[in-house]
Structures are given as C-alpha cells and as structure tokens.
Amino acid sequence: MTSDKAIFLDFSNTITTVSSENNSIKKWLDLIKEKYQINGDMHATFAKKRLAKLVDREKKFRTFMQINHDVLLELYGISEIYEEEYYRFHEENLRLRPDFVDFITGVQRSFQIIMVTDADNIYTDRTLSALGITRYFDSIITAEKVGAPKPDSRIFKSALMAAHNPSRVVFIGDSERRDIEGAKNMKFFTLKMDDDSGPTIADRTVHNFLEVSRIIETDNLF
User: Fold this and answer.
1) 172, 183, 7, 193: which is closest to 106 by C-alpha?
2) Taking 90 as the threshold, does the pLDDT of residue 193 lie above it?
3) Is the pLDDT of residue 98 over 70?
4) pLDDT value, residue 221
5) What is the domain extent for residue 182?
6) How far is CA 99 from the centre of its chain?
7) What is the rounded CA–CA span in Å between residue 106 and residue 28?
8) Are 163 and 69 in contact (CB under 8 A)?
9) DSSP one-letter code for 62
10) Burial degree of 93 (CB within 10 A; 0-12, 13-18, 19+)
11) Are 13 and 21 contacting, i.e. CB atoms less than 8 angstroms apart?
C-alpha cells in the first residue's frame, strides 16, 4: 500500500556534505586550470559567474552542464570542459552525511521517499549509483526531466504526482530560495539542512539527519 506521507529530499549539500561537493568542483577546475594554463583565482571567478546564470536559469531552463559550458566559454574561451572528468571527480569524491543511511532506512517503511533535485539526469544517475543509494528512493525527479528548476512549482508538482499526491509532505533541503521558499509555496512542512544556522523561513532548521528523525518521531507532525 502506498503511504499517504512523503519525504521529499534535495540532493547536493543536503544528502551529501558541502565540503565533498566543493572538493569535487575544485578538482575539476584545477584540471581545467592546468590544461589551459589559466592564471588567477579561477574558482571564485567561475562560482560568481555560475551563480548569476543559475538565477537566469529560472526564466530560461538550462542544464547544469550547459551552464558550465557557457561560463567557461564566456570567461576563458574554452569549449572542451572535460565533462567525463567532472562526473568522475564527483563519483570519486562526494560523501554522504554520516547519518543519512541510518535515517533513510528508518523512515522508508512509513514514508514515500522522493528525491527532488536541480541536478542533471546523467549526474544524478552516476553519483547516486557511486554512492550506493539509488535503491532508497521511490522516485527521482530532476529539473532536467521536468524542464524547470526549483523554486518553480512544476518540479514540486511532478514530485507530488510521482508520490500519488500524498496529503502530508516534509521537504528537506539546503537552499533558502530554491528549496525552502519553493517548498513553502507548496505548503509543505520544511526543514532546512543548514551547517551554519543562518536566517530562514523554514519551519525548522536541522544540522543532521538525526535531528530530522527526532522531529518526525517526537513532534507528532505527521
């Protein structure tokens, strides 16, 4: 029987650690910097340009890899950006938050588990497989599949359809705008995975999945 309760989870920096995501990107950019003998702080320049394009992405959808291509072409005239190495560095270096597996195995009998991610299809398939966690999700909704990123309501509605329109949803994510604001607009109960406890409109802030479990078990919200 399909549960009438669902947990929707963001992927990068929510399930995985921020440091491992940053490390994966750094290794990829270091490779490009060496290949093209680029001087200066490539990492900061790339991040700033990419962030601006992620905002534009909400109006005209582009995959993350398309954005990576655009940023490096505009900044450095680079057309070969070593996509395979990008995926490989993430497969090798991404790390789960230490308590994620214990959490997900503890709740999967009572909740439908849906991933809702802005990541591309290939990236999601390869990194989930490398992390060994694909089996924990009843459905995986990517922005590329939907053609719209968070906070667009279409990606959340697609997740609801995949979960057969549960009456109760808890959403866990790290981005204030894309995850929390988008999920709040859908009237989901929101938990912000925040290592720094910054300001948020989320219903609660959590620092690990043990805290998520405690909220679900003790607050009688679901």
Assistant:
1) 7
2) yes
3) yes
4) 58
5) 5-17+96-218
6) 17
7) 35
8) no
9) -
10) buried
11) yes
* pTM of the shown model: 0.95
Domain boundary among 92, 112, 133: 92
- What's the DSSP call for residue 151? T
Encode pLDDT of 110-144 as tens digits.
999 999 999 999 999 999 999 999 999 999 999 99
Sheet strands side by side (includes 204-206): 139-142, 112-117, 5-9, 168-173, 189-193, 204-206
Q: Across all residues in the chain, what is the average pLDDT? A: 95
CATH no. for residue 174?
3.40.50.1000
Q: What is the pLDDT of residue 220?
A: 62
Is the bond preceding 166 in cis, omega lying within 30 degrees of 0?
A: no
Cβ-based neighbours of 112, under 8 Å, separated by 6 or more: 2, 3, 5, 6, 7, 138, 139, 163, 164, 166
Task: Name the 3-class secondary structure at 141.
Answer: strand
- Asked if the model's pLDDT at residue 1 lies above 60, the reply is no
Q: Determine the residue type at 16.
A: T
Assign 27 a pLDDT band (cuts: 50, 70, 90). very high
The count of domains in the chain is 2
Q: Which residues of 166-203 are buried (b: 16+ CB within 10 A; e: fewer)?
A: beebbbbbbbbebbbbbbbebebbbbbbbeeeeeeebb
